[in-house]
Amino acid sequence: MPLLDIRNLSIEFDSPHGRIRAVDRVNLSLNPGEILGLVGESGSGKSLVAKAIMGILTDRWTVSADRLRYNGVDLLALSASERRKLMGREIAMVFQEPSSSLDPNDTVGHQFNESLPMDECDVPFYRRKKWRDEQIKGLLHKVGIRDHKRVLKSYPHELSEGLCQKVLIAMTIAYKPRLLIADEPTTVIEAGAQDQIFKLFKKLNQLNDVSILLITHDLEHVENWTQTITVMYCGQTVESGITKDIFKQPFHPYTMALLQSMPHFDEMLNHKSQLTTLSGCVPSLQHLPIGCRLGPRCPRAHRKCVETPVMEKSRGHYFSCHFPLTENIE
Amino acid sequence: MWFYIARRVNLFVFTVAVLFLLVFVMLNALPGELATNLSGIQNPTMAQYDAIVNQYQLDKSWFNQYISFIKQRIHGDFGVSFSDAKPIYDEMLRLLPATIELCIYAMTIALLLGLPLGIIAAVYYKKFGDFFLLGTSLIGYSIPVFWLGVIAIMYFGLDLQWLPVAGKLNLLYQVEQVTGFTLIDIYLSDIQYKQLAYQDAIAHLIMPTLTLAVIPAAVVIRITRTTMLEELNANYIKAAQARGQHPLSVIFHHALPNAIQPVLSQITLQLSTLLTSAMVTEVIFSWPGIGQWLIQATYQQNYTIISAGVLVCAGFVIVVTVISDILLIATTPRRRSAEYGSV
Ligand SMILES: Nc1ncnc2c1ncn2[C@@H]1O[C@H](COP(=O)(O)OP(=O)(O)OP(=O)(O)O)[C@@H](O)[C@H]1O
Ligand code: SF4
Ligand SMILES: [Mg+2]
Fold first, then answer.
1. What does the pLDDT read at residue A269?
2. Is this prediction's pTM over 0.95?
3. What are the residue ranges in chain A where pLDDT is below 70?
4. Could you give the 3-state DSSP secondary structure of residue A221?
5. What pLDDT does A329 receive?
6. How far is it, in rounded angstroms, from Cα A207 to Cα A33?
């Protein structure tokens, strides 16, 4: 049974121009102990999916799904207090905009204290402070922060985005969650330290059996660190499957275009396709095309593409396209 | 941060200078002798006139006159009243505390009521509680103070006879004015029936204070609600929720501390409105404060009192605004950083 099982998740909001579907029937499934990459251009709705899983979208969003299950528990049916027991402890999330994810009016140290798992603390109360300090120090060292004293005394605006991100990662792993949702965890971190974070994730994954949903648009990270990927475009899932397979042979024109935007990809490519980068840009939510949302930009688009393609399966590999790259069209 | 404070103080000095200039121009433009308008002495004798000319340098340029006008006022010489020739400064010292007392109590009540209700409205956004509080605060905001005061007097004062309708304290209690704040004065005095005096003073306070508190309370509810809503949708709140923190802890440890500073700074902006309604309230409840005195002076075209009142009330608003501004900077870590100082 998958740890995280999402079927036809839609996220909508009411705008002056009517109801807009920012995320349209997205499917995602994450097995225990797996690292899943969720990729897609900016604005494709990755963060919305993550926030819907955490249940922290504001009231103006409507979330509906055929299935939104964590470990068999229906996340949409949870009461607020049941949800609280799960969030932070079982499912944890690293947010995309680190400095705004910390309370600007409170020191980092104080906020860190609040997110420590006090129910795991078995020392008498007079040694608690020491225990806390040790825990925090250990967690901060794990994410590569050496001068923890300065960091803990600082207010968020005094730290760089990268440091804030590292602090947030340290805070999220304090509870040893079973599912870690990392929304672009390393985009603001300097190149050298990115690998350290990924190694930490990998270690958590292997030693503690943490499953990770890695949201990113850096395909190199996806290639190096994930076992499966799901590709999103404009609020729809376009392709999902095992990372290696997809990198070897993408089925969907959009995935192909993404891969080709990677440096050195041409050398890896043993397929004689002649696709170049897609023309145009991502449509705005107010002007979504009907049918396949890639339609206007897709070099393979045909008349049939005004119907939304259904998800198809081929050799453990899902895609939604009427004319996958493996089929020849004339 | 010091840079920021210096800028504020600078701004303060300029605003006050402009305020004095406006009052000075006003006194020039009003009908009658300038010497009389400035000093308040009606039909001065020759010797008095010479003294005034010397004091206000009326034989020099207008700029010299302006500067010496400021000097006189800052040294506490506000001239004498047109009608009874009493020094205005002493009169103000006697009356101002009563007004401030009323305003402080009203503001305290407004905050005690408005802050929690505003938080509740924000937490129950778009639910029944929110609509109810918004509606109530709209009604509170729209009721004219004088009408509310008169209705209260009619009902609680005359019909039910629960509360006294006028004044600060029953004349039975001979309380000497030391600070001007009734409750403190009673505490400092050595009269026999202190307990009864307290009761009487509070009974006198209830109606004016509550009448005056209605509008600020409505404003506080609305400001708190808007600010809290903004904070509750902020990323760090979502992050705290995602870490499974208890909603009460999220509201009181994170959202509220961030919301309270903008709320307080916006409420300071309401101070001038509060003073205006305080004047009306004082007239209705015959509260011996500066407002009642000023409004009487307006009827009598008592220019020295009017100009002194304008200076003091506006000066009070400016001082409180600057102080609260500086306090706000000092208590907000984000704004304490240097880059904010240059805004
Ligand atoms: N608060 C909001 N109000 C209106 N539209 C929003 C809001 N938040 C997100 N959206 C829209 O929803 C869509 C998906 O946004 P989302 O943040 O999930 O994108 P993303 O895939 O995470 O992009 P990025 O890579 O930039 O993080 C975008 O088109 C965005 O414009
Ligand atoms: S369905 Fe049509 S438009 Fe959409 S990706 Fe496939 S070929 Fe392109
Ligand atoms: Mg995002």
1. 53
2. no
3. 263-277, 329-330
4. helix
5. 64
6. 10
A99-113, A133-147, B31-45, B216-230: the lowest-pLDDT one: B31-45
> CATH number of the domain that A140 lies in?
3.40.50.300
| Nearest chain A Cα distance for residue B141, angstroms | 28
Residue A155 DSSP class: -
- Alpha-carbon span B11 to B318, nearest angstrom: 10
Q: What is the pLDDT of residues A197-214, one digit of tens each?
A: 888 889 889 988 899 999
Beta bridge partners of A228: A36, A242
Residue A106 domain-assigned?
Answer: yes
Q: Are the Cβ atoms of A103 and B334 closer than 8 angstroms?
A: no
Given the DSSP bridges, would you call strands A318-319 and A73-74 parallel, antiparallel or unpaired? Answer: unpaired
Any chain B CB within 8 A of the CB of A115? yes
Question: Residue A13 domain-assigned?
Answer: no
Q: CB distance from A328 to chain B under 8 Å?
A: no
User: Is A106 in contact with B238 (Cβ distance < 8 A)?
Assistant: no
Long-range CB pairs of B53-56, under 8 A, 24+ apart, other chains included: none
- Residue A17 has a pLDDT of 81
Question: Token digits for B294?
Answer: 């000023």
Pick A59's closest partner by Cβ from B126, B235, B241.
B126
B330 touches chain A (CB under 8 A): no
Between the alpha carbon of residue A204 and those of residues A3, A71, A133, A240, the distances in Å are 16, 19, 22, 24
When divided into structural domains, chain A yields a total of 1
User: How does strand A91-94 pair with strand A179-183?
Assistant: parallel
Question: Per the domain annotation, does A156 fall within a domain?
Answer: yes
Residue B100 and residue A20: Cα distance in Å, rounded? 54
Q: In the prediction, which pLDDT does B85 show? A: 83
- B128 pLDDT above the threshold of 90: yes
Coil/strand/helix, residue B45: coil
Cα distance between residue B108 and residue B190, in whole Å: 28
CATH 3.60.10.10: does it fit domain B99-299?
no
Look up tokens 């409105």; give the residue. B273
Q: Which two tokens stand for residue B337?
A: 């950083």
Amino acid A270: pLDDT: 53
A88-101 confidence digits (pLDDT tens):
888 999 998 888 89
d(CA A41, CA A52): 19
Q: What is the pLDDT of residues A305-317, one digit of tens each?
A: 888 888 888 777 8
List pLDDT tens digits, range B129-159: 999 999 999 999 999 999 999 999 999 989 9
Supply the range of the domain harboring residue A187: 34-55+86-286
